[in-house]
Specification:
By secondary structure, this protein is α+β, with helices and mostly antiparallel strands. It has 11 helices and 10 strands.
Length: 371
Amino acid sequence: MMASSYNAKEEDGHHSGSSSHGGAGAVKSKKPDNTAFKQQRLPAWQPILTAGTVLPAFFVIGLIFIPIGIGLYVTSNNIKEYEVDYTGVDMSSPCFNCAQNFSWNSTTSCNCSVPFTLEQPFESNVFMYYGLSNFYQNHRRYVKSRDDSQLNGDRSSLKNPSKECEPYRTSDGLPIAPCGAIANSLFNDTLELYYIDANGSRTAIPLVKKGIAWWTDKHVKFRNPGGNNNNLTAAFQGTSKPVNWRKPVYELDPLDVDNNGFINEDFIVWMRTAALPTFRKLYRIIQKKASMTPTLPSGKYVLEVTYNYPVRSFEGRKRMILSTISWMGGKNPFLGIAYITVGSVCFFLGVVLLIIHHKYDNRNNSADIPN
């Protein structure tokens, strides 16, 4: 009798609870599905590290990394490179007067000649870079100070640049094209190279200015407004040049339509910001001659500089770099040193662990032998 009354109460409570839940809506269970993945029943494999597996791994890594590192290091050392600092900080520098007297407000250019000597000839294609030091292109506000839509040729962004370009967004009530701090600080020194022969006469070294920018930048990211319209003066009408520029963007290379405006390759190279405060950017290419003579024979040279870019305000340095390249790029011994270091450490650890394993394994074996 007591059991039947208890079951009846339990049943009544169950029905009342069901009706109350039904009125408020069914509550979805938070219990994960009963699957192997959600219940963590998938098969797992855990490596068991033993001397027989760890020691060979250390030796194999060492034997692989050390030869690769030596190859990379030797290849890097075979790349020829020559630097000429023309900042003009020292009084003995040919560009000292230019560095002292030139500023962003200067209306005329300053010219200086820097002689130097190549002790070894440069074969194959030679790449000419300009280098800057103590210039922080990686500053957060500097990196953001641009309008990619404007640089891609968007007409609305041309007349209404992004607010990220402030304070280089407008000038005299007109939108700046290209806007932003990156474009405003465009490197604008002009570098020319001359070879001095035995008679003392100067021979100009031909410098190729096209092909220095990335293909994707030249043909995808940067476009002039108006599409294929060759009249860039009309396309940029109603805009103003950047504050520190001497000429508008459509006069960067007026003799070559494919290298003018936003698709000017010197401008494109500059707009790809550097990650470190000391950097170099490709300026020109000296192509290999058809004859068997070196691209740049050893001897005396003169670097003619049109000094337009002041660096004293941020205690920077300017330099010109001549460099050959290899299959791994420019001169960079770090990668080879890193491979040699890692390989040597692994090989050394392998030897140490082998000695320890051999020593203590013999002790354990001797302890297990009964008297």
